[in-house]
Amino acid sequence: MTAAGGSGGSAPQAGTAPTVGFIGLGQMGGPMASRLADWPAGLLVHDLRADATAPLAELGAVVAAGPAEVAGAADLICLMVLDDEQVRVVTRELGAVVAGRGRPAVIAIHSTIGAGTAAELAAELAGSGAEVIDAPVSGGFMGAHAGTLAVMVGGSRAAYELCLEPFGRFASLVVHMGEVGAGTRAKLARNLLHFVSFSAAAEAQRLAEAAGLDLRKLAKVVRHSDAVTGGAGSIMLRDSTAPLADDDPLRPVLEHVRALGEKDLALALALGGELGVRLPFGELAMQQFAAGLGLPAGAGKEAP
Questions:
Q1: Catalytic residue chosen out of the listed positions 187, 217, 220, 263
Q2: Which residue of 65, 160, 268, 288 lies most exposed, with the fewest beta carbons within 10 A?
Q3: Top-level CATH class of 237-304?
């Protein structure tokens, strides 16, 4: 991969193992980095806490004194720090070192940050030899430990290809979402679904509790059936959110989903009415369910 500017040299081509640096060894970064500990081209790690770096050192990683030492040696530098402010501070420090060392590097931001931060830093460091990409992850600390995270990469195709093999140590899905910033936008959309669904789950629990049900047994059913059906992701079938054309091959499938969904939502809302439990997520879903599928509301289910 060639640097985006005139600092000379070149990072390893895709297929050649880059030296990897990892900064930020918390709940997510620690297990992600641990899966790179035996990386053939070497792993440097840094965290302000000695108790975070010690386990990586035992696995064979080199503990760096600070970000500058990581930037002096690594071709791919992974960041999993707390927030936008820390990302900006560390990325700028890395960029300054890379600019003076004579060969480029890719800085991959794994933290969940503002939609424009990675692109802002990429533009700021353009020409320095430091190529900033955003590569947020999904799958939680369980996925980090198991090596089954999903990574959403925003950046050049060359940078994506350079990262594929090392990212594959801690992820079972690595997707190139587009230009720098696209990875973060994808993560924010994905987490919108994640946390809205948590609120909807709380509403379902209130209904179940009012109906005298065992909430732990209900939770077992939800986890089981979502594992079988794929949960909310199973309905994300379309390339566009525009209304479906009459001849769209998905129309019969989604009309069936609409009929089931509107029926079951109506029944749940009726139960809520009987029990005196207000269900605002359910009410909103009834209003917007069909449109979300690209369809008009079913007969008798027009939104109020």
A1: 187
A2: 65
A3: mainly alpha
